[in-house]
Predict the 3D structure of the following.
Amino acid sequence: MRLDNYAVADAPRLGVRGWLRWVWRQVTSMRVALLLLLLLALAAIPGSILPQWPQDAAAANAFVAANPFWGPLLDATGFLDVFGSAWFTAIYLLLFASLIGCIAPRAVAHARELRAPVAAAPSRLDRYEPTSASSPLTPADAVAAARATLRPRGGAWGALGGTRVRVDERDGAVALAAETGHLRELGNLVFHAALVGVLVAMAAGELLTFRGQAIIVEGRSFTNAVVAYDTFDSGALFDEADLEPFMLRLDRFDSAFDDTGRPLSFAAQVTLARPGEDGEASTIEVNRPLEVDGAKIYLQGNGYAPVLTVRDGAGEVASSGPVVFLPTDAAYTSQGVLKVPDVSTGPQLGFKATLYPSAVEGPFAIASVHPDPANPVIMMLGYEGDLGLDAGIPQNAYRLDESQLSPLRGEDGQPVTLRLALGDTVELPDGLGTVTFEELPRFVALDLRADPSLPWLLVAALLALAGLSVSLFASRRKVWVVAREEGGTTVVTVAGYAPGHDAGAAPVRARVLAAATGDEAGERDPA
Amino acid sequence: MNVTDLSVMALWGATALYAIAMVASAINLARVADARVRARAAVAAGAPGAPGEATTEAGGASSPARASSRAAGIARSTTLVGALLHAVGVTARGIDAGHLPWTNMYEYTISGAFFAVAVLLIIQRRRDVAFLQTGVVGLAAISVGLALAVLYAEVNPLPPALQSFWIAIHVSIAVISTGIFTVAFVASVLQLMRDSRDRGTRWRGARARFLEAVPGATVLEGLSFRLNAVGFVLWTFTVMSGAMWAEDAWGRYWGWDPKEVWSFVIWVVYAAYLHARTTQGWAGRRSAWLAIAGFVALIMNFTVVNLFFQGLHTYAGS
Ligand code: HEM
């Protein structure tokens, strides 16, 4: 098959292979690498401005709802999940294709160069800022003295880390060529290769990782199994059987706040038990996860889980236990929902409640002034009717479906707000039963995560850092010394090549010249 | 006087001294430039012994050389004393707060500005970079002044999220690389201005004559590169250590939080700058623009992103 590119009059007919080669050469060119880097930077920016699904689904949802035109459009084009979008992926995959296409041939060339002999000094040095001086030494001795200051080294290490030299005699002159700088190229190659390593490790991590969230109330425990998690995500290659069957009990949650309610410390005191073993006490703190068999357990959140007991109209206990209340502000004003389906008589009951850990009550309002439970008060609204739990649709535990419920009303026909301090029992209207606020334990939200790729990622990242430092700070220089007998004296010419930012190159040349002209100290200042 | 007042007063003192240093070094630059222009004119006219710049006409009390050395002296000493006061102010803040002084915007600004001046002084010890002084102390005066006037925050106990040894590693390297990038930024801006003047495209007038006292564009580009290279390595380390901290604190090493996005953008832009230096058609002016873009992104990350974008890095404003 031939590619039909006659539309471009001057373009040679490349054929598929030629055309592919052309594309590949473009992709691996420095200019395209540069443009792809700039594109990558630009493409990332919307990910910090627009709400992103993976980071904040609620905000993304609200954004789509609030912007009937732009919301769906941006969503469909990937702007609300930039880092998972096809275009962002395409940019970085192209960049890495370009990277591999760039470094692979350079690595081969580099390996060849390491073994090749040093190139002889150019026959004309005028292009390389030569300086000349006369020397009392013979040409051979002058070059030998210059050579000594360069401290050449042989072998592979010499080629890499040090300076390699060669000395030729030609046209009655002695010429030395010295080369430094293979280390720089090696660093550059290591750096770029390590970037590929970082990408591969991250991709492997995606496949092998798992992450789950669990809430544990003080005194209760959690069993490490997929069903026990509130939410659980895992990579395609993760095997559920790999979960270590341990149990974790929250013995106590300690927190400290200053007078204004700012947090000072959080610590979950836990006991970890593996099957057939005694429990082992540990602490999980913010910034200090607990490591268990390659997984880590993080303290992600905390709050109160008041123990509420509801008795129905017949005096039977219809529900009893801790209810997780989610904090809504810095003073831990928290909201919770209690659903009571299992009543022996009467309608099902539901409650929407707010907890004020340090309540201050005025005539019209109530607020919490501190996160510590100095004066815990729960205000709640009760509902009767059908909780809608039988529909088979999983329900959010923190939301009450009010569609088939009606508020409990007092004698005046108004919905009643129930107020419970710790230890209180209040009666529900119409003889529907009672609610008791028994205790106020804390809960913690824990994240469990395992990512077996992390050590590899670390190694790749450290290699990248090391390669980068070498590549940026090692120098790349060439120095040439030509000594020639002219009318009875020796004339030494020194020249060299180094990038413009290499401030160390000039002193080296000066030192070489000084040595070759018999200035033993070799300290003559160039400037 | 308690430690809080000591810190604030020392920082105001540093701001004032930096402002003086900025003016004095600008005057010095202008004088050196005048002398150079005159010396060049003298060479052109064939006057003997002209190349030793600023030595011509030495003598009279009003000679530019003498006035310039006086201005240079004032600039040097006010910068030095300013930096000392600045160090006292930052240290006192740290003692007052009971933790390293870079846990909120106010602290980060005063520390970052200090490292910028410190980098300038360190380079100054090795070679004469008086031409960078105006820009660097000017930026330092503005940022410390703004920090005191706008960003000031009472000392806070360290919240649990920041109680980690990583704050000593991650944030200090971030602050130091910010300081280095700042000095490099000044060098790149001068490079572009000087280059335009040499080409005769812009900055030709008498008001830009100070550019005659600035080294050539190639020298500035080399200086900027060396600083940016150090800054880039440190920034790479900042991003990596940030990821390691995030792994401990948030249970994931990378999550595209706005601050992470911008740290990445900064890193990529500076990587593009390093590439551009060796790309045909991009070396010189275009790559200098990329270095400036990197610095702008750095400042964005610290201002706009802190103040307006929701994220996990919650030290904004507090
Ligand atoms: C993920 C994308 C890339 C990043 C983050 C990156 C980053 C860097 C950095 C920071 C440097 C400067 C340090 C050094 O000199 O070693 C550099 C240099 C270099 N890069 Fe890349 N690079 C990437 C992709 C590429 C690609 C695709 C190519 C080939 C087209 C390439 C070719 C080079 C070359 C030749 C140098 C050496 C420049 C010199 O001699 O100073 N890089 N790269």
